[in-house]
Design brief:
The chain has 5 helices and 7 strands. It is an alpha+beta fold. The strands form 3 sheets. Strands 4-6-5 form a 3-stranded antiparallel sheet. Strands 1-2 form a two-stranded antiparallel sheet. Strands 3-7 form a two-stranded parallel ribbon.
Length: 158
Amino acid sequence: MKASNFYAPTLRESPAEAELLSHKLMLRAGFIRKAAGGMYTYLPLAWRTMKKISQIIREEMDAKGGLELMMPITQPAEIWQESGRWAVYGDEMMRLKDRHGREFCLGPTHEEMITTLIRGEVRSYKQLPLMLYQIQNKYRDEIRPRFGLMRSTKTLTE
């Protein structure tokens, strides 16, 4: 593809709301555009970079015996209530109800989901160790988003 046909709109000046140097540079270089507080559209340069990073993570995890899975974005309230974190998470958790009035949340993290899955499936120590991973968006309504655009969580069980 010709560079002249590639969509990467640049900015001369950093927007006033950009505080972190990395944020300013990504906006100016045409990687991202702000949709709302803490929400961004990834432009082609950023999306290509994110896909490359994800591929490197997949290769490394797979080489160590990891198995990728994909858990739902929406999660039932019951699993969060059982862990006691439904009330504790507070306003950061984005909650919703389906047409039947059942409560759900958009996954701010997936510890409850993976625990529920493994608890229901692993029946013997002979099935362990088990290394599962996923690469997915997380949904939090943080008062002040930290860590920039990328945040990772490492959970190990030994």
